[in-house]
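User: Let's play a game. I give you a shape written as tokens, and you guess the letters that built it. Ready? Here's round one.
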């Protein structure tokens, strides 16, 4: 039986390299895709060259070449999209995947892109049998899954708070471009009173009480991440608050770090905390770990492998991470692979 073929778009970026290395460690076959033929060939050589044999191939497919993208999607079983900013690259690849019936996962943070995939690709993906999970990465994806794990079995939740505390984050070129677009946007997506809203929101500073030893931290709120789109699909909640610690941008070279080494980029510490609050009680949980880039890569690879091996969701179409997989077991699987440590506290 032929092994599934995993396509990685943007394979020569930092996240793409982590995804490729993890898939190869699981003995997968790879199709490296992107617009830069030289970069793809260099990446293939870096991953093993001739020694990798047929396990690593390349395909040049610029994001504006619909025919080339269609060839990638027709050949691959699953695509992992790693090339941001997704406000620019996301729609063409998601459309091509849905039309070809290619399973699709992306590393998007941008809520407008994630909403766009739900709005435009749902019917096509259901018709072609594709499973599509946008936003399955560190920001957005882990928050969505943790919200699902914390809220499991709880009804009538008034508010979910998702808070990211990050130290030592050094942005890649794609992440820098994404951050620039996100924080300059005047139309934000928010979720309140049981509905998604679009419009200007005044940014503010807040304080979030992270559990010891981290303690209270100053936060940027609202943080423009995709949980406002995905969490309500599988959690009964009326309001969602998203926050990011101001410490995320305090590294001296946070925005000037495109060319640093992989080991230096991996030197991050993070805590993702979720509170689910309702009248008469609350539940909470957190993920703590190092190297947010690797945590995101492991999440997308775990989902892709499960889908390719027939262990994915029972239904097709565009799904939130916590809608596609049972949240706590999925997070526990990532914990066993060293992505983070998961702690859950029930209602009290």
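Assistant: Ready! My guess for every position:
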């Amino acid at each position: 039986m032929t092994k599934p073929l995993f396509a990685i778009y943007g394979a020569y970026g930092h996240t793409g390299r982590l995804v490729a290395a993890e898939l190869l460690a699981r003995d997968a076959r790879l199709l490296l895709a992107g617009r830069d033929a030289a970069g793809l060939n260099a990446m293939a050589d870096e991953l093993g060259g001739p020694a990798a044999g047929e396990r690593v191939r390349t395909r040049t497919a610029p994001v504006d070449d619909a025919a080339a993208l269609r060839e990638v999607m027709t050949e691959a079983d699953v695509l992992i999209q790693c090339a941001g900013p997704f406000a620019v690259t996301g729609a063409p690849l998601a459309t091509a995947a849905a039309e070809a019936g290619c399973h699709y996962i992306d590393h998007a943070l941008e809520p407008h892109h994630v909403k766009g995939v739900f709005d435009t690709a749902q019917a096509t993906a259901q018709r072609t049998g594709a499973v599509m999970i946008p936003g399955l990465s560190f920001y957005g994806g882990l928050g969505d899954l943790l919200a699902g794990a914390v809220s499991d079995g709880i009804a009538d939740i008034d508010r979910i708070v998702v808070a990211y505390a990050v130290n030592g984050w050094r942005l890649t070129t794609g992440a820098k471009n994404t951050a620039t677009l996100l924080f300059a946007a005047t139309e934000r997506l928010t979720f309140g009173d049981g509905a998604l809203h679009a419009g200007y929101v005044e940014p503010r500073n807040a304080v979030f009480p992270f559990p010891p030893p981290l303690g209270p931290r100053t936060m940027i709120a609202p943080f423009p991440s995709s949980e406002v789109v995905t969490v309500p699909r599988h959690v009964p909640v009326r309001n969602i608050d998203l926050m990011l610690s101001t410490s995320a941008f305090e590294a001296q070279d946070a925005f000037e770090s495109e060319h640093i080494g992989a080991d230096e980029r991996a030197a991050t510490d993070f805590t993702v905390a979720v509170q689910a609050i309702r009248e008469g009680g609350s539940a909470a949980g957190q993920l703590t770990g190092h190297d947010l880039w690797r945590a995101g890569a492991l999440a997308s690879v775990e989902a892709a492998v499960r889908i390719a091996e027939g262990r994915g969701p029972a239904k097709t179409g565009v799904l939130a991470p916590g809608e596609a997989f049972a949240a706590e077991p999925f997070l526990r699987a990532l914990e066993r692979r060293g992505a983070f440590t998961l702690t859950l506290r029930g209602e009290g």
